[in-house]
Amino acid sequence: MEVDFLNTLIERHRAPEVDIYITDSYARILAATDVSRVGSISNTARYVLTIHHSALIQSDSTLQSTIHYGNPVIINEVPEFVIVAYGNSSMVNTVGNTLHAALAAAAEYQEFKQQKSQTSLEKRDKIASLLLSSKTDQDRLLSLMYQHELDPHLYRTVIQIHLDFYRNSFFNINLDLGHESSIEILRAEIAQSLRLCRYLNSQDLLLVHDRNTILIIKSFIGGSDISRLYFAVEEVCRDFEQILKQYQGLTFLIAYGNFYNHVSEIKNSWNEASEMLKLGGLSEKKNFCSLDSLLLDAVSFHLPVQIKNKYLLPAIEKLTEPDGSLMTELIDSAEAFVDHSLSLTLTSQMTSLHRNTIKSRLHKFTMLTGLNPLNGFQDSFLVKMLALYVKQHQNPEIL
To answer: What pLDDT score was predicted for residue 260?
Structure first.
């Protein structure tokens, strides 16, 4: 509790011929009518802290009789403060009781506010966990959402942030924190910075899911043009990207899932965000795994089985050497040719390969697979899908 508030209480409840001070749980005076006593130790408070209840102590001298009133302010069975009033006035007991009641009420209210704030955050974390769970009691979830004034009918998407921490000057073991403890501190700081993002509001939820994962359930008001929501969430993700770039000692990926306006479907958005993160990690293009940069990767990942069976798998079989290795140089050259507008010159510049090398590889690729990008869009599309399919299936984490 702030010392200024303690001084305000003393000023409000002081009386003539009565001196007052308030100590901490170590009998050290925090605020007093006689400011010269601030910082010293009170023997009366020390005695009261020993007996754990109020006391009236009368001390006589040749000149006058002084009454010392002492009373501990106990919160959660622990003495936090001691009120002491003293003087030769009959008002000592009244002033002491009044000030004790005022400080006890203020301390209890502060404790209540702290518990309420903590409980609110814990419950919002619980709501987020329930929204992302595959098996959720819908009635319980809706009840919790209404209690915390969360509209269950808004459009929502899950933004997933994957953090990879590495050792640098931030993780200084000489601070007696250790690598993992430093990570916890940094992750908590990052979560707080994300909560303060200008685009988040009271309808949004942030959950630190595990050591490397932060999830944001972002809400939007729906409309007839849902495509506008994608532009909006991508702006939010870019803002997150700028926030995360301020931190050293980590690399990160950000992705988002589809929009849903029913609480039972929010978990699907998380699955989609996780999928985009895997595709983004494989492509190594940007921190923000947006659909703009991973459109064809996502198409390849969800390609219909009949297309895979009819076109891709037979082509892969024909590009496989007798020893089981794949002719990746042919696939890479064909993909690069498609990516660079079917231009031998541009492909040569971007790959640092001679035009004749690329031309030779393209010819061999076409002879083996029957796919020729120069034949039109369909063959170019299948070449790109083939290259992406091979990359995705070479990485078991993507499957």
So the answer is: 95
Kindly report the backbone phi and psi dihedral angles of residue 291, in degrees, each rounded to the nearest multiple of 5, phi listed first.
Answer: -65, -30
- Using CA atoms, how far residue 159 sits from 29, 55, 99, 214, 265, in Å, is 51, 59, 51, 8, 14
Task: Give Cα 240 to chain centroid, integer Å.
Answer: 10
The answer to whether residues 282 and 160 belong to one domain is: yes
Quickly count: other Cβ atoms within 10 Å of residue 277's Cβ.
20
What radius of gyration, in Å, describes the C-alpha atoms of the chain?
A: 34
* Domain finish residue from 277, 295, 313: 295
Question: Does 283 share its domain with 319?
Answer: no
Which tokens belong to 387? 């290259």
Give the confidence band of 175 by pLDDT, cuts at 50, 70, 90: very low
Whether residues 229 and 310 fall in one domain: no
Q: Give the total number of structural domains in the chain.
A: 3
Does residue 20 carry a pLDDT above 60? yes
Task: Give the model's pLDDT for residue 57.
Answer: 87
More confident residue, 60 or 230: 230
Q: Judge whether 8 lies within some domain.
A: yes
3-class secondary-structure state, position 93: helix
Residues 288 and 318 grouped into a single domain: no
- To which residue do tokens 């003495």 refer? 79
pLDDT at residue number 154: 95
* 292-310 tens-digit pLDDT: 888 999 999 999 999 999 9
Which of the listed residues 239, 267, 295 is the one where a domain comes to its end? 295
Residue 311: closest CA among 389, 224, 207:
389
pLDDT at 174: 43
Residue type, 44: T
How does DSSP classify residue 262? S
Helix then strand then coil, in percent of the chain rounded to 5, is 55, 20, 25
293 contacts 246 by C-beta, under 8 angstroms: no
Q: Are residues 77 and 179 in the same domain?
A: no
Q: Does 173 have pLDDT greater than 50?
A: no
CATH number of the CATH domain containing 208 = 3.30.70.270
This model's pTM is above 0.90? no
pLDDT of residue 29: 94
Residue 61 has pLDDT above 60, yes or no: no
Q: Are residues 290 and 202 in the same domain?
A: yes
The boundaries of the domain holding residue 209 are 154-295
Predicted local distance difference test score (pLDDT) of residue 284: 64
Same-domain status, 341 and 359: yes
CA distance 216 to 261: 16
